[in-house]
């Protein structure tokens, strides 16, 4: 077979022709493929970058949601406290004041009367609510302080000199039976005192309440001489209120003033 090379890029094989491959075309093709590969790699890098940014956004969103959730729970608790204060304020005009409900016992007859009243559930509830408005609720661990503060509502300090827990009086080392009034016999009254403390501190037991009463009886002379302007209290340091508690208190006081003004207007119109 004769091969004839013609001019240009054609080769003749016995009058058949073949065209030589253009090297530049292959180079162009490889260059194009390389460019596509580089572009794919760049796009992949960009996608990974976007994915990382999305993950970061999700993390920030989760942290923000958790923070907002915590703030919402805090606001809920503040609203609950405010609602409790407002509800208490709303019934202030309806519930009798503590001075209308109870007078400190100054004689045995007064004790007998309080003992009988302590059996009346309605009276008991009204007295507990009246004391709660003064001394508050949710004072866990402060039961002794509250008990010392309210003891004068029930017993006149001078009259407590005539009382003891068992009724005995000890003079010159001698026991004198039935020389004093035995407060231990007034079980219903003791229970009423405990109920008034328990509304402020639900962990406070009746035995602890009895211990405070017995301590007051033991120190009755000293308590009588004490400056009555100073409020009796157990020696417990109180925590300073937080800014949130102060804010809630300010809102509650503002609402209370509005309520009192509204009630005053209604009374004036009637």
Automatic annotation (TrEMBL):
Residue intervals of the DUF4806 domain: 101-189
Name of one Pfam family that matches: DUF4806
Protein name, per record: DUF4806 domain-containing protein
Lineage of source species: Eukaryota, Metazoa, Ecdysozoa, Arthropoda, Hexapoda
């Amino acid at each position: 077979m004769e091969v004839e090379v013609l001019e240009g890029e054609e080769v003749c094989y016995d009058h058949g022709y073949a065209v030589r491959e253009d090297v530049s075309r292959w180079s162009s093709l490889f260059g194009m493929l390389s460019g596509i590969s580089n572009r794919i790699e760049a796009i992949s890098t960009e996608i990974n970058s976007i994915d990382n940014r999305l993950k970061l956004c999700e993390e920030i969103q989760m942290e923000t949601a958790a923070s907002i959730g915590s703030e919402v729970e805090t606001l809920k608790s503040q609203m609950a406290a405010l609602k409790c204060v407002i509800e208490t304020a709303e019934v202030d005009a309806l519930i009798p004041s503590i001075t209308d409900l109870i007078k400190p016992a100054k004689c045995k007859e007064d004790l007998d009367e309080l003992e009988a009243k302590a059996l009346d559930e309605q009276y008991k509830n009204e007295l507990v609510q009246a004391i709660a408005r003064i001394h508050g609720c949710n004072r866990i661990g402060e039961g002794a302080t509250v008990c010392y503060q309210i003891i004068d509502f029930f017993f006149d300090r001078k009259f407590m000199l005539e009382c003891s827990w068992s009724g005995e009086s000890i003079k010159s080392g001698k026991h004198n039976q039935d020389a004093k009034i035995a407060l231990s016999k007034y079980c219903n009254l003791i229970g009423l005192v405990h109920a008034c403390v328990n509304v402020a501190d639900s962990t406070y037991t009746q035995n602890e309440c009895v211990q405070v009463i017995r301590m007051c009886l033991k120190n009755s002379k000293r308590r009588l001489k004490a400056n009555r302007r100073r409020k009796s209290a157990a020696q417990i340091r109180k925590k300073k209120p937080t800014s949130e508690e102060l804010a809630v208190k300010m809102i509650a006081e503002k609402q209370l003033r509005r309520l009192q003004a509204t009630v005053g207007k209604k009374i004036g119109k009637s």
